[in-house]
Design goal:
5 strands, alpha/beta, about 45% helix, 5-stranded parallel β-sheet, 8 helices, globular, about 15% strand, inorganic pyrophosphatase (n-terminal core)
Length: about 190
């Protein structure tokens, strides 16, 4: 977490271009939406002028070659833990990679900062990608003495439910409970009503 936040803040301070690869499922969409909307609360002008994103054409997973040329940081929420070759290619081009993921991987990539609950001793293995993005934003909140991430529990709950994560873990269940009690997202609100 610490390395990931340092990397992100370095690129924000440098006024660099950042690209977010949106994974093509509900967990991927909610992961990217949570991250982008959270960062917009903190740095609205930077996000509007410096962050771009793109969706996969089909049911792909991970990073693709559609990264804008002036990009200095690529963020892959809910994907890319295993994209070791792509991480190296980007590294060799001078592009940093931040992975915030929950998928199983053999090892940490030597060419990316990877935040993944499956690769460390974090006890809650049932968090999906959006759960990991929420944890990342909560860490930033803690450093800045903010509580902006609390607003996005509904998106986290939506993504966790859609990814059919194991709810026997206390933390996963609590995110869903908090998120479904206070729904801000209009799509999720309508789904809950139905």
């Amino acid at each position: 977490m610490q390395e990931g936040v340092k990397l992100l803040i370095k690129h924000i301070n440098n006024d660099d271009k950042i690209f977010v690869q949106v994974d093509s499922d509900c967990d991927g969409y909610t992961s990217a939406a949570l991250l982008l909307n959270y960062l917009h609360l903190l740095f609205p002008g930077f996000v509007e002028n410096n962050i771009s994103y793109d969706f996969h054409d089909g049911k792909q997973h991970g990073l693709t070659d559609n990264i804008p040329k002036d990009t200095k940081l690529v963020i892959a929420p809910d994907s890319s833990s295993n994209d070791y070759d792509i991480h190296k290619e980007l590294h060799d081009k001078g592009i940093d990679v931040l992975v915030i993921d929950h998928h199983h991987a053999e090892k940490y990539s030597p060419y990316a900062v990877t935040i993944n609950n499956q690769l460390c001793n974090y006890p809650t293995k049932s968090l999906s990608g959006v759960g990991m993005v929420l944890k990342f934003c909560q860490y930033i909140d803690q450093l800045l003495d903010k509580d902006y991430s609390d607003y996005f529990y509904d998106l986290a709950a939506f993504g966790i439910i859609a990814d059919v994560m194991d709810v026997r873990d206390f933390e996963t269940r609590e995110i869903i409970k908090r998120g479904t009690k206070n729904v801000h997202n209009k799509l999720f609100y309508e789904i809950c009503k139905m």
